[in-house]
Specification:
3 helices, mainly alpha
Length: about 70
């Protein structure tokens, strides 16, 4: 079995090129993934903030949602 060797700098360059190519070809997939990550972080933050606030009644929430708050 023949052994293939490659310089570290050449390997890094090849990996960078491959990564850029994958990202450019799949930009919609990565964009959707990034949007989901941002939404998850925002939801987690909202949940943590909500744990430190006073409870609000269901009716009060629906009044706010209906614009009668």
């Amino acid at each position: 079995m023949a052994e293939i060797t490659i310089e570290e700098s050449k390997l890094k360059e090849l990996l960078k090129t491959a990564l850029v190519e994958v990202l450019s070809e799949q930009k919609e997939v990565f964009s959707d993934l990034l949007a989901e990550i941002v939404e998850d972080i925002a939801l987690e933050k909202a949940i943590r903030e909500g744990e430190n606030t006073e409870p609000v009644s269901r009716d009060a929430i629906f009044k706010l949602l209906e614009g009668k708050g």
